[in-house]
User: Fold these one by one.
Assistant:
Number 1:
Amino acid sequence: MDEPGALHQRNGPAAGARMHGQFTDADTGRLTHALTLSDSCLTVQNISSSSPPEHLDLRDCLWSRAHRGEDQDAYLCVYLYPYRRRWMAWGPGRQRDERRFRLALRTDDNDEDANLREAERWARAINSVGRAEHAHGVLLSEVRRPRGMMVLVNPQSGQGQAMALYNRHIQRMLTEADIPHTLFITERQNHARDLVRSADLTQWDALVVLSGDGLLFEVVNGLMDRPDWEKAIQTPLGILPGGSGNALAASVHHYTRASPVWGEDLLTSCGFLLCKGLVSKLDLVSIRLASGARLFSFLSLAWGFVADVDIESERFRPIGALRFLLSTLLSLASLRVYQGKLAFLPAESERESSSAGLCGADTRLPDRLLVPLEQPVPQDWTQVEEQEFVLVLAMFQAHLDEDLRAAPDARVDDGLIHLFYVTGGVSRLMMLRLFRAMQSGKHLDLGCAHLVYRRARALRLEPLSTAGVMTVDGERVEYGPLQAQVHRGAARLISA
Ligand SMILES: Nc1ncnc2c1ncn2[C@@H]1O[C@H](COP(=O)(O)OP(=O)(O)OP(=O)(O)O)[C@@H](O)[C@H]1O
């Protein structure tokens, strides 16, 4: 047993402590815990045992709050989501860990609120530690007036489990983090687009999507449809994976540099980031189709193999993310080669605009690097010599889906189009190896002569094959010539 003096020293405030105090265990009511808050962690020492203190890393703290319990006592709650390895899981994922402490101050009979005030002081201090330095972006709490989040859920996304995911995880996380929110359940295609097009955005701190990437694509384009698009597109966006691809959610997790996670672990990770509310800039890519239609994309543009797999996998939707694997194997069996022309403006180009530019009547994010499709591309563009492609894939974020890290070096606002293409003549075996290596982002290391990677700021793609599939952010678009230009940091995303 410890000497009283040693005990005091062990439980007393360490050098650099911001706060120190004693609390009773919320369950047993015995005086047991000494808490010490430092600049990075909350140390919990069980006074009545000789066990070593526990250091809770406050980077894992979602939020802390004080409240009065049913017994009228004051409590301090700390909601933590540390990384832990789970049975049967591939790697560590964030796991919920709630700590409750009861205030043990003796109070004067006339001041019943003293304990609650003290608990509130602790909660504020813990939350301010969690809000420490952030190298990139700003905290949502710094840009928002506390109004709440619009949470859009597509109940049909993925395997139809988005509502269950909300009920099991997200509702509780947002409540614990003290973030008011309103749920909107989409009923049809373009419902989300219509909602944000006409929404009073002064009511919302952020627009959050619990779905696949398709619903966020609608939200982005709904914001850009508005007459006040310039202000509207600055509304912070949030992504929670509820679909089967979940490429943006996987990218956002990848940017934290944590080990990859899938499924509900990915949802918890994105839910945690959403509650922490660090807002970064997000690149948008303006895509102009031959019909004159204009789309705004945050994720990817695909033609050939990748687009075929995405669209053909729709019929296997009931099997979830495995639908992409099955569709990949089927598409490999009937590997197609497409004829077309590809040109791009290399990222190294110094040019800020072409002499003409594609501005016209549409004043939204002028595409100053593009010229009309009828004209040849400007001289400083690179015209790809090959005209036979198995795939062309332009990535604007790191992940193509939860499993495929197509552009591992991409960042949320790097202002780059990560352009990949695979030329005709590649073997099926090599394609299989490329996609397997893409799971860990190592496909370029295979040294495949048919795979080319370039960093670009704009591109033009002109299919010569009459039939085929093109997708933008996983959604099918009209097939034909198109061009695209990246607009660095044009939107905002709650990210790492
Ligand atoms: N209630 C609904 N019923 C049918 N379709 C809907 C509904 N709500 C939204 N949609 C449409 O479903 C399409 C696909 O949505 P989303 O991409 O979010 O999910 P997903 O396709 O399951 O995800 P993933 O792209 O990751 O596979 C969107 O184009 C959206 O407009």
Number 2:
Amino acid sequence: MNKNEFVIGTCENYTHDGQGVVKIDGYPIFVKGIIRGEKAKIQIMKDKKTYAYGRVAELLEVSAHRIKPKCLVYGKCGGCQLQHMDREAQQDFKREKVQDVVTRIAKLPIRVNPVLDMEVPFAYRNKGQIPVDVKHGSVKTGFYRIHSNDIVDIEQCLIQSEVINEILQVIKKDLKVYKNGKDLRHLLIKHAFSTGEAMVVFISRNRDIPHLDEMIAHIQTVYPKLKTVIVNLNQRTDNVILGNCEYIVYGDGYIVDELQGLKFYISSKSFYQINPVQTVKLYQQVLAYADLTGQEKVLDLYCGVGTISLFLAGQAKLVTGIEIVPEAIADALRNVALNNIDNVNFVCSDAASYAKELVKKQQQPDVIVVDPPRKGCDEITLKAMIKMEPQKIVYVSCDPATLARDLKVLCENGYEVQAIQPVDMFPQTYHVETVVSLVRKNPDAYVDVTIDMDELDLTASETKATYQEIKDYIFEKYNVKVSSLYIAQVKQKYGIIERENYNKTKSDDSKQPKCPVDKENLIAEALRYFKMI
Ligand SMILES: C[S@@+](CC[C@H](N)C(=O)[O-])C[C@H]1O[C@@H](n2cnc3c(N)ncnc32)[C@H](O)[C@@H]1O
């Protein structure tokens, strides 16, 4: 297949980032914006030998699930990927995405539940992290164009709260009037839906932002519930958005939100779920799967500002929340006091170190809830969880691939998955949140693996992923297939001893294909991810 060539094909399926897969004689072409069953004339944009990227030149058969995207910059801005699909097609895509990894990576013969949908799937984001570019009197605020650092200048984002859009427009206007935004990198705006309170963080290379007081006053006239304004100093040269140093220039540095009668302090750096309407459904599912009687000791690993811990507290004997970010733990501690709860502890610690310590002290929670970041639980945390033998584990995840990887480990070590519930926390995008209920099997029903304490102190060379796991990881993340031979070559390059048959050519003069540099980089990244190098 050649660049710019046109082919006609039908979309058979989707990649995990929502692109359609069209196969021509078994050769996959990844195409954005096409729906399963649709036939199209496709222009090849990039040919990669074993697969290609294409674009729809003309739709020849249109799906009944196709709708007109609401957003004017859909397709240019990288934020949403599924606005051309109706709700049913979006939910099918998300359920199948979770089902695929559950079957293929975790190898579990269980059917994933239908996705818990959102009734009004727009204006749901309570947090906007908006890049700013002020140059020669022009002010651009918006989102990065796909695969680039160019800002798509937009007036409003339809998945973002209207309050955030409104505040953003006021700031943008003032930046033009005062010509004062040259040092600004990002604006972070948080909006607590239930109380209406808003926080604005100016992320700047320079602490002094001229006319800041006038700008704050202007925002307040338009939005009186502006509660706090912070200047975050970020002089880093990488892509990390928030710097370490912050100056509260107005208010107390936090806002308060309420979920199901519980109040939560939120500061600029703390993690707080971005879709409060769906968060309530998510947490209710966690509660249902934890199935508490009031007698249980619960461990909530990766607890953020303690939201899940406080939800569980009413039905548990004792909840201990563990979180690595000190600001989030400070918020969590204030949240305990704010809600008059006396059966919750919070500890600022790495989840792995804390769990390992509990194993050493032979402490056994009855239920463990985990809600890790995208990379999932590390192996030390998983092994410590298994060693603690809780009766139930509730796993909350925003990345189905790492979730499936971790479920496989848990299910090979005494746990059984009872139910898998996806929740649509991110409508219009390819992301999906998932809650899984696991119970400890009867010890007679499985072969127990003995894990010594020494094993918890894993070194890099002891953690190993199989060839298939490496292939799956790269395919999940980049839609790229790599061969075992290429993986073997890269492992050898990094000094990981390799099996004979992959290392040696079959005869001296036979030629083996050499792993190309782009695939080598992906494999090396996967090896790093699995802590093999
Ligand atoms: C997906 S959030 C979940 C937070 C919370 N459960 C909620 O629903 O709001 C993951 C949290 O894990 C924290 N975290 C990341 N790495 C960690 C680690 N190694 N140990 C403990 N917490 C960690 C992050 O700071 C973040 O607050």
Number 3:
Amino acid sequence: MFVWDFIVSVLSWMGLFKKEVRLLLLGLDNAGKTTLLRMLEWHNGTAQPYLSTWFQLDFFFVEEITIGKLKLVTFDIGGHQQACKVWRDYYPAVNALVFVIDACDKQHLPESKLELDLILSDELLKYHPVLILGNKVDLPGAASKQQLFNDLGLNYSVSGKDKTTHSQLESHPVELYMCSILNRHGYEEGFEWLCQYID
Ligand SMILES: Nc1nc2c(ncn2[C@@H]2O[C@H](COP(=O)(O)OP(=O)(O)OP(=O)(O)O)[C@@H](O)[C@H]2O)c(=O)[nH]1
Ligand SMILES: [Mg+2]
């Protein structure tokens, strides 16, 4: 079943995105992906009903949500190694990626780095913008932005929050935003940043 055929849509969340976009939401277990989906639904208010659909794809569950004109897709597959294989099959069908990291779960940062490295080094994804959300900054003990930068080895790959145009970049734009999805703080700026790279 080609579940991706209907992912293409127009993202109009909060009026920030008015472009056609297919967005893939990734991250390890417990990072905050589902919470982000629920928050996007909350931002949408009750004006437009949303639809949440689950698909089973081999051993994995796929959740696609439709909020008004926005369609987002995520996997309930956690950070297991075989997940990469599944994500990869979806790369050609998406315009941008959002990678959520639990900034408090320092023990699993190396695992996040591994997943992220695979994404960032993938030829198929060379020009895809990647928004990294360092989540749960509301909790004591959350890694600082600098620490995440270092631990994820991002120092030389992020594009910076300037207005470097997509065509000026040698590779895909990557940026890290710290946030608390639960407190609805920090991720909107990240989506605004992402928006500028979606042609
Ligand atoms: N303190 C705090 N907790 C958060 C935040 N975002 C998510 N959580 C909590 O983290 C836990 C995991 O969040 P989920 O959204 O279920 O994580 P997930 O990435 O969907 O996890 P999987 O479905 O297992 O891959 C939940 O208990 C959330 O309430 C945040 O910003 N701050
Ligand atoms: Mg989830």
